[in-house]
């Protein structure tokens, strides 16, 4: 790295950090942008999606490289763990997520069961499910005008390359949508009826090509380093600031001790919902709401059996509404012969009923200055408690899962309805939440600018302040586009 200063520095190379870079470039063509990523570049294609690697052995090795500081291969599920899961119990394999690393482990009955994050060029964009469903009206930020937020969602769909029906023509999936629609469509607005799950993917002759941040960045990756540069395996130790203005960042190469200062006109912290508040904390930026209000939805998992010919390939989606708080994904899955119970003859179909959980300021991250993680930053722990409202919604979600399984065919024999611990979706949010006013209950404004700062922004699922049940990537990229637009507008006039 030869540059000592830049117009914009973005900490984190995932979908929202990449969206900031792309929109700033769109609206401010002459901007110099530096992106900082703690992990390595693991694919020749910058930010490419790992699921496009067809060699499964090679993909598994790449997933280990994507784990950041802890590069221990994750073990597959054991027979004992599988039997516990089938019976509806907790199994330890849920704490082993391929291609991700564990930030902390907690008692799953008492706390957010674990924290995960990716560390490689592309961030979680190399491993995300590519689901891009739109949030319901109840999930959207109430203090951003409806038309403005809808326009931002459409921008996000373009950045991510959303395909509304990536497996078009799947006759079995279409027939199932019609059956589900008879049950769930009455009373819904036309845009919230049962439909194919939108994915950030391009159909190919044999399979889908999944979109990573290579798609979000687009032509940026071909620019000269003088205008756009990604610093891989580079850790940001702190945001340097004075009198409400960020002046730049302190950086260090992974595994080295000597740091250097990169001056910047604007700083965007786009790590993730755990590491963005961690970096702000380490930088002495500690608003009252920092790390608080951590929230995620539960997943109620149900296996169903479907008599289908031809087999279903597409993923179907029942959207959340004001009256139906669950977002439901229905997809084909696989079972080996030893997994099937006697009489199981149809196609196995997996289902996830995403169930919202209540927001509570006491559900929070805590940082330990005495114990540092592999970044050299205060280690993270998570404190979280289930609410009475959560328990009531979960009972309704479990009943909904059985109801849907019966429409599909039947609940798969030998498989219990399972409530995965909150946090298992990796859709944490709220830890740097936006607010309508600087009243101590939020970290940033509606454009993701940190309160009391002129030029410091945050990005990622952590800015979402609402209760949600929908995959949040599209939503958080939409909010990122608003912040990026404001940066470009403000800086181009200077």
Question: Helices, strands, pairings?
Answer:
Blueprint: E1 5-11, H1 15-27, E2 33-36, H2 56-65, H3 79-86, E3 101-105, E4 114-117, H4 146-160, E5 162-163, H5 171-184, E6 195-196, E7 199-203, E8 208-210, H6 213-217, E9 228-231, E10 234-242, E11 245-253, E12 259-269, H7 275-282, E13 298-306, E14 316-318, E15 327-332, E16 347-355, E17 364-372, E18 378-383, H8 388-408, E19 410-411, E20 418-420, E21 456-458, H9 473-492
Parallel strand pairs: 1-2, 1-12, 2-9, 12-21
Antiparallel strand pairs: 3-4, 5-7, 6-14, 7-8, 10-11, 11-12, 13-16, 13-19, 13-20, 14-15, 15-16, 17-18
Helix pairs in contact: 1-9, 4-9
Q: Would you summarize the structure shown here?
A:
The protein has 494 residues and is of the alpha+beta class.
Highlighted features:
494 residues, alpha+beta, FAD/NAD(P)-binding domain, 7-stranded mixed beta sheet, 7-stranded antiparallel beta sheet, 9 helices, 21 strands, 23% helix, 23% strand, globular
- Total count of strands: 21
Question: What coarse outline follows from CA principal-axis ratios?
Answer: globular
CATH architecture: 3-Layer(bba) Sandwich
Could you name the CATH class?
Alpha Beta
InterPro entries: FAD/NAD-bd_sf, GMC_OxRdtase_N, GMC_OxRtase_C, P2Ox-like
Protein name: GMC oxidoreductase
GO molecular function: flavin adenine dinucleotide binding; oxidoreductase activity, acting on CH-OH group of donors
Domain Glucose-methanol-choline oxidoreductase N-terminal: 220-298
């Amino acid at each position: 790295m030869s540059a000592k200063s830049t117009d914009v520095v973005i900490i984190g190379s995932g979908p929202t950090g990449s969206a900031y870079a792309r929109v700033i470039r769109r609206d401010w063509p002459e901007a110099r942008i530096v992106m900082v990523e703690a992990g390595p570049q693991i694919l020749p294609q910058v930010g490419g999606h790992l699921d496009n690697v067809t060699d499964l052995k090679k993909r598994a090795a790449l997933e280990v490289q994507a784990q950041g500081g802890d590069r221990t291969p994750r073990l597959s599920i054991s027979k004992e763990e599988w039997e516990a899961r089938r019976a509806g119990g907790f199994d330890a394999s849920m704490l082993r997520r391929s291609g991700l690393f564990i930030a902390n482990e907690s008692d799953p009955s008492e706390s957010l069961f674990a924290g995960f994050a990716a560390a490689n060029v592309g961030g979680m964009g190399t491993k995300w499910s590519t689901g891009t469903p739109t949030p319901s009206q109840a999930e959207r930020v109430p203090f951003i005008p409806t038309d403005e937020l809808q326009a931002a969602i459409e921008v996000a769909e373009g950045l991510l390359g959303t395909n509304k029906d990536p497996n078009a023509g799947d006759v079995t999936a279409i027939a199932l949508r019609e059956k589900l629609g008879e049950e769930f469509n009455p009373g819904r607005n036309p845009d919230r009826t049962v439909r194919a799950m939108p994915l950030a993917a391009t159909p190919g002759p044999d399979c889908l090509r999944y979109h990573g941040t290579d798609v979000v960045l687009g032509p940026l990756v071909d620019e000269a380093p003088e205008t756009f540069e990604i610093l891989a395996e580079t850790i940001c130790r702190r945001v340097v600031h004075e009198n409400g203005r960020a002046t730049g960042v302190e950086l260090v190469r992974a595994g080295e001790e000597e740091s250097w200062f990169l001056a910047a006109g604007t700083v965007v912290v786009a790590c993730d919902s755990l590491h963005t508040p961690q970096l702000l904390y380490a930088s002495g930026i500690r608003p009252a709401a920092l790390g608080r209000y951590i929230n995620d939805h539960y997943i109620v998992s149900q296996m169903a059996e479907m008599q289908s010919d031809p087999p279903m390939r597409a993923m179907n989606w029942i959207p959340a509404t004001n009256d139906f708080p669950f977002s439901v994904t229905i997809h084909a899955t696989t079972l080996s012969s030893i997994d099937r119970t006697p009489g199981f003859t149809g196609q196995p179909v997996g289902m996830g009923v995403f169930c919202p959980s209540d927001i509570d300021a006491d559900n929070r991250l805590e940082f330990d200055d005495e114990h540092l993680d592999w970044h050299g930053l205060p280690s993270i722990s998570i404190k979280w408690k289930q609410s009475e409202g959560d328990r009531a919604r979960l009972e309704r979600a479990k009943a909904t899962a059985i109801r849907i399984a019966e429409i599909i065919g039947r609940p798969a024999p030998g498989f219990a309805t399972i409530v995965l611990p909150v946090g298992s979706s990796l859709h944490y949010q709220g830890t740097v939440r936006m607010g309508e006013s600087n009243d101590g209950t939020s970290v940033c404004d509606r454009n993701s600018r940190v309160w009391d700062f002129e030029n410091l922004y945050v990005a990622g699922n952590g800015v979402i302040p609402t209760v949600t049940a929908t995959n949040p990537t599209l939503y958080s990229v939409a909010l990122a586009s608003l912040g990026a637009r404001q940066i470009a507008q403000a800086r181009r006039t200077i």
